[in-house]
Amino acid sequence: MSFNSFGRVLRFTTWGESHGPALGAVVDGCPPRLSLSEGDIQPFLDKRRPGQSRHTTQRQEPDRVRILSGTFEGKTTGTPISLMIENVDQRSKDYGEIAQAYRPGHADYAYDAKYGIRDYRGGGRSSARETAARVAAGGVARLIIPEVQIHAWVAEIGGDAIDPANFDLEEIDRNPFFCPDPAAAQRWEGLMDAARKAGSSLGAVIECAASGVPAGWGAPIYAKLDSDLAAAMMGINAVKGVEIGAGFHAARLRGEENADPMRPASDGSNRPDFLSNNAGGIAGGISTGQPVVVRVAFKPTSSILTPVPTINAAGEAADIVTKGRHDPCVGIRGAPVVEAMMALVLADHKLLHRAQNG
Amino acid sequence: MSFNSFGRVLRFTTWGESHGPALGAVVDGCPPRLSLSEGDIQPFLDKRRPGQSRHTTQRQEPDRVRILSGTFEGKTTGTPISLMIENVDQRSKDYGEIAQAYRPGHADYAYDAKYGIRDYRGGGRSSARETAARVAAGGVARLIIPEVQIHAWVAEIGGDAIDPANFDLEEIDRNPFFCPDPAAAQRWEGLMDAARKAGSSLGAVIECAASGVPAGWGAPIYAKLDSDLAAAMMGINAVKGVEIGAGFHAARLRGEENADPMRPASDGSNRPDFLSNNAGGIAGGISTGQPVVVRVAFKPTSSILTPVPTINAAGEAADIVTKGRHDPCVGIRGAPVVEAMMALVLADHKLLHRAQNG
Amino acid sequence: MSFNSFGRVLRFTTWGESHGPALGAVVDGCPPRLSLSEGDIQPFLDKRRPGQSRHTTQRQEPDRVRILSGTFEGKTTGTPISLMIENVDQRSKDYGEIAQAYRPGHADYAYDAKYGIRDYRGGGRSSARETAARVAAGGVARLIIPEVQIHAWVAEIGGDAIDPANFDLEEIDRNPFFCPDPAAAQRWEGLMDAARKAGSSLGAVIECAASGVPAGWGAPIYAKLDSDLAAAMMGINAVKGVEIGAGFHAARLRGEENADPMRPASDGSNRPDFLSNNAGGIAGGISTGQPVVVRVAFKPTSSILTPVPTINAAGEAADIVTKGRHDPCVGIRGAPVVEAMMALVLADHKLLHRAQNG
Amino acid sequence: MSFNSFGRVLRFTTWGESHGPALGAVVDGCPPRLSLSEGDIQPFLDKRRPGQSRHTTQRQEPDRVRILSGTFEGKTTGTPISLMIENVDQRSKDYGEIAQAYRPGHADYAYDAKYGIRDYRGGGRSSARETAARVAAGGVARLIIPEVQIHAWVAEIGGDAIDPANFDLEEIDRNPFFCPDPAAAQRWEGLMDAARKAGSSLGAVIECAASGVPAGWGAPIYAKLDSDLAAAMMGINAVKGVEIGAGFHAARLRGEENADPMRPASDGSNRPDFLSNNAGGIAGGISTGQPVVVRVAFKPTSSILTPVPTINAAGEAADIVTKGRHDPCVGIRGAPVVEAMMALVLADHKLLHRAQNG
């Protein structure tokens, strides 16, 4: 059984394979009367788009989104919004090798074990190309939460982390790594070039912060905001870890270090000022009004030129080398995907919260 | 809006507050004709039960589970299984302080911000006492997956980790910490005593492994096995981080280090032997046949004797000290809860997989 | 697989069998800060309670509801509301006959075919006793929609219909049939007595109208208000037909007869006056502001003293007579159940509508 | 809030408006390894296609379906199947009148009341054109239940019913009315011509029977097979009533008349022979092995040439005449839609049943 929908009242469904004619998303539950055109979505797809530097796959996909339903005279109508992106650069190549043998680190073996059939062309449905549909859906979600500002950045590549002292949000768009630390960005150029030349690949850690989220979003006990974010992030291709706020570091703090003390609001409101944010803006599964902060670990790209032992569908030993066009560090292009999922979860919870307290 | 159900075809709903008359779970979707009595569930509740050593809260709750529906002559009938646990030791005490001020690190402020009303007695619904209902439901789930063995243990307390060289599964039940390393268990006695005496608290990391899971469970793209596990674990009280397999460490490996190479099965089956398990038994959101491995970070208990700055409901500054009976390290009793959630997710996916391939 | 939950954002789950220790409902998604006590629910259970006249089953059940969670100091907290009703009068009798053979018209054979196991005591989970849990849940739902007035009545018993000219809402509570036509109520006394004496049973038609529903509730395309009502009503034990507004009669009208013409509101509002209500208050799956009107057909009670040919579990021919305590016309006590389901569907859609437009 | 998905484990989502560029369905949860091509779906769309006789709308839509995802080398892969149908004949016309005033009997006013915006072109999302997507999805569902034969027919137009004595399944495809009674078909020609000439419209009753359904499908208490069918049918445009088996007629039978007696199977199996089928093949919400029988009432088309009093968006009185291309009896083309929904519900329940008993 597959489940290709995500969300509770803002609910999107994606479809499409890496090498099919197109892929898309149906976004259901969007409120009516919001201004929406392709121009609201395209910039986010452009950020995720491959082939923009030598550090990402050279597959050339314009990733033009079309809105096929759900708007009238430039506004949403409350009906489902169908978004479609055509696949253009499905390079006609010989898939013989990956058709025959399972690529370690990829879903090849698992898909075969589950479904008894496998679209091996570019990984089929398991390809990270599917995340383009999430990014498009995320563009719609952002319109629902104009009060929220979402930023994701690469905090670490191959174990080399940014220096918080150098953090500058504006740097993110000035280098090919969504890196907020210009010194780290420069180091990463070298790291990435070396990995690529070695036929190897690197992992990455993405951080994402959403500010402007009011206190009160999140639906305990089983649709907690952090729980939904964890599902959203862990479901992104190549992700192996998720942290909220201080994350695993919190497990090493003492109670008095980890508590986020509160003080009366300096602006005179009845909302507290928090003196720290180890909680990552979420307590008891509900937003506290502080920035919602998530960290996401991406494993290194599994498609590498180094031969790896594997088996083929007949169960025989084989070695495999994954040629073709691949991101040497899939985590980088993960940043816009993390942002999109953050937007989708928050928009869903905004609407959910309205249901009960509206 | 609250969501108090979890699961897709095996679906449980919990109810109850820390200081209400009772709490419970309704487990829906359990297959018929399984032998089930209270004796199948009680041992798991006993593992989680408080007051068994000086290292956990001294609240005395027998946590006796009653089955109120769903069985006939000792067997499940396919109808909903209602499980109830009465609250016994709701100590009659003065809640004045926590009724007036928000405890930092707790959900007090967030619940008030969301609901505009708060059952402050012991944290109400946000209390970790709710996890007793999950553990009871988990007891039912285990009957659905007899082929799977699930073990959770504490791998780290206050930053002090077990030594993998000392790992012995049988040790887990021989100390009050679910610790598989006897040397670490001894060190932790001292750590815990010191923290308790200092009026402080400690965090912990739990590891959980499920062996015997066949390849093929998991429902991409949005009900991936790892995604559902991440939601399940992050939704446990005090959890701030979740890793699958190598987790964040994978982000620091190179592609060739992280790949889990495969070789023909030594047992002659058509299932591969994997030469490592960085993937934690899941690829593309689907189980691979290797053990499913999860790591979960618990923050230190927020209820501490050290005064912490906060505000009261009127928005005025206050300092708060949380007296009463608390676990100095909530992560310890988190181990049976992690096991239960692992069982619930796996049982759900076993049934889901049957729907499509049965 | 069983599904024992109903609703989308106001979602309730029921559990319990006819002859188990208790039955109940967990109501999830109720908004916070509503006044709620057992006294808000009990009157609806009392209306449905058996043994109040010679025309219903003589089983004596006090049907006392207990609220086990979800309220604090008399108000809802936004957390799940657990309602429990103990079974008292499970008469210790010999179930030999129905344990051995399938009662035609009942779910005995179907449950055995589905589950391979059957709690034959009073029909187990398939007993209409489960509807007590729905009625209790409906009591909570009504608090969410104070603007709506819901009334159900018996419009027809054994083919003998009320005369619309005699319709008087106040009569409903003055006779044992929820009959708004005193003349019909008198005739039905005789009909019912005759059927009971003959060891036979009668069917009934229930009508239910909800006034005060504003225009705009309902969630096309697949959670239309009428679609959800149809599911809710058809799911009640013994129901075989559901109509909205003019129902099947509409299929015999011409377009110009069936249209509900509109005129500017006589009260000066921008809401139209409708000149008829063939639509039953719903167009395109959305409420129009007119009363929402449903008609529901109940088959005659299947438990009768007349012998009916059947088979036993071994597949051999048998004749069966269903002795014991039964309603000669289950439709009568269906009226409070229809009201409850109407309340539950409307409350759910009120909250849903808020999510999008709040 | 809108909900545009239907089903539990076989789940489809539709999108698209009457006058948008296209409409479609995403079918999720289809088992892998089934042969599927456009040729499996197109015949059902062709049955529903308008413009095939003078008795349906003259809008010319080829309704060519394209499969955009979910298959590989002619077989399903277990991933979502995206189906798209382009709109071709969106006649460029003046919508001035219906843009200004609400058409009685249509969803115009209700959509405006709900969403505050309305795509008035051909009814937008509320148009019965959306049912083409359901019919396409139904084509996929049929592949999942090859053991089931589904037939729907028109049993009544404008109150003129077929004669059961004349019933011949093969006649259904020999006349433009899906009519199994040739004599009735002939009468209906005249009825329809007269109604069309009078600028009026007629209602219809559709019957649908599914044979080959094994005993045991259906998921009590809230996903009963009859309950899901009632939702599915009531959700079709223009439907106002649904009956299972004897339906409302059952409410007029006595218990001994309505019971479906059972006898040992004449074929020696352990499945009973039923001596009647008043239950319509469903007891307790579970299939019994008899044919599943549904009756569905369609109101007369609301688009008529007869002027009807209404109001405009400003709340002023107006009269409206709906010109353009319309079906004089929408119920006729409802037959393939009823069949599709029957297939979708049954396929969903087959997979659900597997989850628990597979």
Automatic annotation (TrEMBL), chains A, B, C, D:
Residue positions binding FMN: R125, S126, S127, N237, A238, G284, K299, P300, T301, S302, S303, R325
Enzyme Commission number, as recorded: 4.2.3.5
Cofactor: FMNH2
Pathway: Metabolic intermediate biosynthesis; chorismate biosynthesis; chorismate from D-erythrose 4-phosphate and phosphoenolpyruvate: step 7/7
Catalytic activity reported: 5-O-(1-carboxyvinyl)-3-phosphoshikimate = chorismate + phosphate
Enzymatic class: lyase
Binding-site list for NADP(+): R48, R54
Superkingdom, taxonomy of origin: Bacteria
Cofactor-binding details, from the entry: Reduced FMN (FMNH(2)).
PROSITE patterns, alphabetized: CHORISMATE_SYNTHASE_1 (PS00787), CHORISMATE_SYNTHASE_3 (PS00789)
SUPFAM superfamilies given in the database record: Chorismate synthase, AroC
Keyword set, alphabetical order: Amino-acid biosynthesis, Aromatic amino acid biosynthesis, FAD, Flavoprotein, FMN, Lyase, NADP
Region of interest (Disordered), residue spans: 37-60
Described purpose of this protein according to its UniProt entry: This reaction introduces a second double bond into the aromatic ring system.
Subunit (UniProt): Homotetramer.
Family indicated by similarity: Belongs to the chorismate synthase family.
Protein's recorded name: Chorismate synthase
Organism: Sphingopyxis soli
UniProt lineage: Bacteria, Pseudomonadati, Pseudomonadota, Alphaproteobacteria, Sphingomonadales
Protein's gene: aroC
